[in-house]
Amino acid sequence: MKEKKIGASDFLALGLYAFAGFGLEILLSMILPGILNVKSSDYTLFHQCIYWTLTCILWGAVTLFLIYLSKTRYSFDLMECKGIPDRKGWLGAIIVAASAIGITTAVGEGFKPVLEYHGIVRFLFQNVYYLFETALIMLTIAFGQKFGELLTKREGLPYGGLFLALTWGLVHILIQNLQTGIYTVVISLLYGIVYLLLNKNIRYSYILVAIMFIL
Question: CA distances (Å), 31 to each of 26, 42, 126, 198, in order?
Answer without folding.
Answer: 9, 15, 20, 39
